[in-house]
Specification:
The chain is α/β, with parallel strands linked by helices. 33% of the residues lie in helices and 29% in strands.
């Protein structure tokens, strides 16, 4: 088992209309490989092609060109569908069913063993903290409650791949935290997660890999910590070591003190090489060194500035 999701030149275009004649490329030759067991976050401005990609992966629309695989199996293979959990974009479910009826019906459609259905429905309602609404009708649910039921439905079959189209939409801060826990738990179980979102701080917290899409074109793809790695070094100098602190302050691009009064200094790559050669900082007990990181947000904005 190598890739949870893989695409090769995956393309979806829509024909122009009478008023707008150009063909629209919702997705233009997408190539991504998401290793099994990882959490992948797909980012991009509105209309970038994220939902289009997910619909292609879920076999809901047919690509114009290119290929896609889920769990190392070509999209469209019926046997694999039961191993995938899916939360669509803005889910809405028939309002006349109760949460229990809806989830039991979903479990039957997923062909879960009959004797397991009741326990499984209770299990997922517990996970999304909707147990008390088990007998309530979906029609009366708020947006966030509907989203929680959608998530419950997506994890009913303990999927090996979980595909979520904007799972954080409509959730309150507590719900967002719960969702992050759910994603982490699914990952611990060995499941892979593919989702898209606009909430960069949450994506940064939970994703091993991220991809950034703009107007159907992939602008960046890679491990989150590698994409956000910075050239610089963050050097923490003990407040007692004034001598080193004063020397580094002359070279630092940024400097601040932590709550204990220790210096936190940012050095760019050249300055770091120079002072480390001179002062042998790696050997000093009063100095701690770590690689600098920029936020995913700053990387995102820099990336989507590019013209495509
Ligand atoms: N059925 C369709 N006919 C014509 N164009 C379409 C159709 N579906 C999607 N598109 C176009 O494809 C592009 C990508 O849309 P998509 O829904 O994949 O974006 P998205 O990244 O999910 O955006 P959002 O963040 O707003 O959800 C958009 O320009 C959209 O107008
Ligand atoms: Mg979308």
């Amino acid at each position: 088992m190598k890739f949870a999701v893989r695409t090769e030149d995956l393309t979806k275009s829509y024909k122009g209309t009478f008023f707008k004649r150009d063909e629209v490329f919702a997705l233009n030759k997408l190539n991504i490989e998401v290793p099994t067991g990882s959490v992948f976050g797909f980012l991009g401005p509105n209309g970038a092609g994220k939902t289009t990609t997910i619909r292609c992966l879920m076999d809901l629309i047919r690509p114009t060109a290119g290929k896609a695989w889920v769990l190392d199996t070509p999209v469209g293979n019926l046997n694999i569908k039961q191993e995938i959990g899916f939360l669509p974009d803005s889910p809405s479910f028939g309002g006349h069913l109760t949460a229990n009826e809806f989830l039991s019906l979903s479990a039957k459609l997923l062909k879960l063993p009959r004797h397991e259905i009741k326990a499984r429905v209770d299990e997922v309602l517990e996970i999304v903290e909707m147990k008390e609404y088990k007998k309530a009708k979906l029609g009366g649910f708020s947006r966030g409650m509907t989203q929680r039921i959608g998530i419950a439905q997506a994890i009913l079959n303990r999927p090996r791949l979980l595909v979520l189209d904007e799972p954080l939409v409509g959730l309150d801060p507590h719900g967002r935290k719960d969702l992050i826990n759910i994603v982490n738990k699914q990952k611990e179980r060995g499941s892979s997660i593919f989702f898209c979102s606009h909430i960069l701080s949450d994506v940064e917290k939970i994703c091993d890999f991220v991809g950034i899409l703009k107007k159907g074109n992939l602008l960046a793809f890679g491990k989150t910590d590698e994409l956000t790695a910075d050239e610089g070094m963050i050097v923490t100098v003990d407040k007692e070591d004034q001598q080193i602190a004063q020397q580094l302050l002359l070279e630092a691009t940024e400097s601040k003190k932590d709550a204990d009064g220790n210096w936190i200094l940012t050095l760019n790559h050249d300055a770091w090489e120079r002072v480390n050669n001179e002062l042998n900082l790696e050997e000093k007990d009063t100095v701690q060194i770590e690689r600098g990181h920029k936020s995913l947000e700053s990387f995102f904005f820099k990336t989507v500035q590019k013209e495509v």
